Amino acid sequence: MHDPNEPAGDAAAELSKHDALAGAFPATTEGRLLFAIAFLFSIFQIATAAHLLDPPSQLVRAIHVGFVTVLIFPLLAAISGKGTVVRTFAWGLSVLGAAVAFYQCYEYADLLVRAGDPLPQDMVFGVIAIGIVFAAAWVLMGPALPIISGIFLAYCLFGEYLPSPLNHRGYDFSQVIDHMAYGTEGIYGIPTLVSSSYIFLFILFGAFLEKAGMIQLFNDVSLSLVGARRGGAAKVSIISSALMGTISGSGVANVVTTGQFTIPLMKRFGYRSAFAGGVEATASMGGQIMPPVMGAVAFIMAETLGVEYHEIVKAAIIPAVLYFASAFWMVHLEAGKRGLLGLPRNELPSARAAIMEGWYLLLPLAALIWLLFSGYTPLFAGTVGLGFTMLLILGSSIAIGLPSMAVRVIFWIGLGLVAASFFEFGIKVVILALAVLIIANALWKGGRETLAVCRDALAEGAKTALPVAIACALVGIIIGTMTLTGAANTFGQFIVSVGGTSLFLSLLLTMVTCLVLGMGIPTIPNYIITSSIAGPALLELGVPLIVSHMFVFYFGILADLTPPVALACFAAAPIARESGLKISIEAIKVAAAGFVIPFMAVYSPALMLQDGGALAASFGYPAAVAYIVVKTGFAIALWGAAVVGFAAVRLTIAERALATIASFSMLAVLPLTDEVGFALGALFAFLIWRRAKAAEPPATTPRPA
Fold this sequence. Notes:
Blueprint: H1 9-15, H2 29-49, H3 57-79, H4 84-106, H5 108-113, H6 120-141, H7 144-158, H8 173-181, H9 190-212, H10 214-226, H11 232-244, H12 251-268, H13 273-286, H14 296-305, H15 309-338, H16 351-373, H17 378-400, H18 405-425, H19 427-442, H20 445-485, H21 487-501, H22 503-518, H23 523-540, H24 545-558, H25 567-576, H26 580-590, H27 592-603, H28 614-619, H29 621-644, E1 646-647, E2 649-650, H30 653-667, H31 673-695
Antiparallel strand pairs: 1-2
């Protein structure tokens, strides 16, 4: 049950400080029991997604949170090697979590009848449910999110005593508990709905592809494409992390998986440890904003805004390309400054050979992307993608043992027809095919090893989902407070009042809120909290709704790169063997585009392919898109040169200052600043071209014989 992708030794011990669930399931009786519970958790989620089990949505959410709270306490105690007393207490809390889920299921019909008028036992179980969720989040993620959620809960109970306009009309204790612990507004609200359906399936999808070797495929393709170019090791990191983002919804998980390979590679070829860690952290966090399959927040955003998933992808595509292009440019300049060449061609794998060997791993990813962009729901797409992945993994194991190539081709054609028949006959065809493949694999040794890999992927996927799931449950307290008290309007009006004087100040206030919240809480609750407050307020100030939510999303991600907490950077620290703070500083430089793109999109929504903005009104939508992309790209190029201090030649202080002024002139939204920025940028380019030409060695002409 050990994950081969896990870091070993000291690195694993250091990583566990930043990821409490970094270790494997213990090889003990207790560990095997927890493994079995995690396995059953995944089976339950798959069964409900495929409608093999079809309980009401409220029960799915309650059982989902029940599994999460049952697992977190004893699993953390077991992985961290706590003593008998602590483990016994952990199992006691686990039993309470199970009791809450059982009560929700057993009393479901009666709870509907007495909604708004809870009995004493309802109050008891409601308090236990809220307390268990708070405790689970605290032990797994630290105190920040529980404290913030606790403040909101206290506001529900005591906000009537605050001065106007912060006060509310007051709510009875039973009303607050009923609102938060039952129904669809508190811990079982929309975040938990999304966690228990889309997010869990996509995490399982990623876990299966990782077990099947997708990380190695990404690394081999990246090495083949850019490994031989200047600074190729860092460019490999950016491409492989961007690709990894298509199957991983967590930037920190991305750092830990791809970083094990890319950070040592960058260091070996001359990059500073801090810079190597910063590149990996920046690229890994960018995986969450990289279409076509983005991070978990994208699915929550689509659900919150009531739009199809491809609308979110459309808004994200240009900013994501600019984000990664910026990171690519920064490492290119750093390599040029330090004279870092690419890897020898004879040491690089072949992309063609890698794809020929692992082509089948790309099929479920391609199917998932096609379904998401064809208007199917993320739940449907995730279920189908996961089913196809399992068919391929189990089918590959069978195909290896077939006697000839002709038989193998016939087998794959037949399996392909079975998969295609899903669209005509439904999920039961795939389930039947999976059952046949499982039986066939169980009959021989190699097949049993494949089944063990699938079993491990199910358990590991459930473990990986725990932080996201508990964060979604706890952040429901904040959403519940907003809906019960109308607190979002109070805070939103403050942002609107600031924006009445200056939209930029409102955006700055929203950005700071995201970065501060992000110091202690993950991207998902950060987005949910801030978008609930700032989204409607920015809409009132004329910012398109998707743009305002993407603004919050971006800065929620960048919070994981920003000191002093910088979770992604500290996750990279044990691999890079460097201070997390130093890595964070380098990551901010590399991720500079991420800090300016959201602001530019607000003033020019065409950057996110949205209507609106003065530019589109004056010149038309296509021209506005082309102009803003060129302007942003040029500004990023100048900023990179200024930060690194290199552009064909090493820059003087005056040249770096000129590049900085030119870059910021194009980012400012003031009359004539674009013209000034382009003019200064052209002057900078001319000066560098002239210096580079002067530095070239003179061409030697052969002497006449």
